[in-house]
Amino acid sequence: MRDVQFLLVEDDDLQGRNVIRAIQKARITNRIAWAEDGMEAIEILNGCHPWSRVSPPLIVLLDLTLPRMSGLEFLRTLRADPRFQSLVCFVLTGSDKSEDIAAAYDLNVAGVIEKSRVGEDFRSLLRLLESYWTVVRIPGDH
Amino acid sequence: MSPDHVFEKRPKAMADAEILLVEDDDFEAKTVIRAFSEARIANRITRVEDGVEALETLLGDWAANLGEHKLILLIDLNMPRMNGIELLREIRSDPKLRRLVCFVLTTSSSEQDIADAYDLNVAGYVVKSQAGEDFRQLVQLIDDYWTTVRMPE
Predict the structure, then answer these.
(1) Per the domain annotation, does B130 fall within a domain?
(2) How many Cβ pairs within 8 Å bridge chains A and B?
(3) Residue B65 belongs to domain spanning
(4) For the segment B9-47, what is each residue's pLDDT rounded down to a tens digit?
(5) Which of A137, A141, A142 is most worth mutating to test chain B (most B CB atoms within 10 A of its CB)?
(6) Does B127 touch chain A (CB under 8 A)?
(7) N or C: more exposed end of chain A, with fewer CB within 10 A?
(8) Measured between alpha carbons, how far is A9 from A31 in angstroms, rounded to an integer?
(9) ipTM of the complex in this document
């Protein structure tokens, strides 16, 4: 059985918990790491976080508005590092500013998802993640 | 091959959504088009046979109203003249095309191809054998993608 991991980067406690619960409930995976901002996410990816670990195949779910290191800064850091250049990232955002969306696509995201459009219990987000993981081969997925 | 039969049904919703299928094999192309047509989700699929023809379409006939469509490219890798990776390289280096949403659709599951494709900013790499019977799961993915994802403008 192929097993995917998620890294959720989200500063809002309630939102984060809801996304994780929804993913677990949909049984896409139980292996979800949660970082509260870009810095913490980088620590986790680098393997130097005190208790959180991830390994490929990995999909990042990224909020854009975050303290310390914003979502776009985080993406810029990832894309400049050959180890994380091809990491699959979806943006999950409350912002519908078209310059943010364009900037995210320029930084190689698989898709930008507006929180206002995911429906009750993140239903359409989960449907997308489920069919994405069913069909798409990502780096590190053998 | 004419995509006209896709037009006829004028399928549900998905206004302004369009697919450019870049595939040199006639049979494969027909199967993909039929899958979308049966699911009645695509407004229009245009099929071209290789990277050269894809660029001609994008930069020629379609250049004027590229931004008005939710366009998804499905790109085969092994094609004559210009292959899928070369096409992606051209797309990513052209300011008018670089944000286009591209999925790879291929029989190859080589790690090198997968890495090259993601380095060129593909939204997803789909191995045909994993796309479901008659590409049904691929169609589902594209439908879910359109429904949920805010595409670049």
Answers:
(1) yes
(2) 92
(3) 4-148
(4) 334 444 467 899 999 999 999 999 999 888 877 568 899
(5) A137
(6) yes
(7) N
(8) 14
(9) 0.88
Q: What is the pLDDT of residues A47-58, one digit of tens each?
A: 999 999 999 999
**Contact between B150 and A131 using a beta-carbon 8 Å cutoff:** no
| H helix or E strand, kind and range, residue B18 | strand B17-22
HSE (side-chain half, CA atoms, 13 Å) at B44:
12
Determine the Cα–Cα distance for residues A105 and B101; give it in Å rounded to an integer: 9
HSE-CB for A35 with a 13 A CA cutoff:
33
Nearest to A71 by CA among A114, A33, A31, A38: A38
Query: Residue B59 maps to which CATH number?
Result: 3.40.50.2300
The band of B66, judged by pLDDT with boundaries at 50, 70 and 90, is confident
Check residue A98 and report its DSSP letter.
H
Q: What is the pLDDT of residues A97-117, one digit of tens each?
A: 889 999 999 999 999 999 888
- The two structure tokens encoding residue B96: 């008018």
- Would you say residue B95 lies in a domain? yes
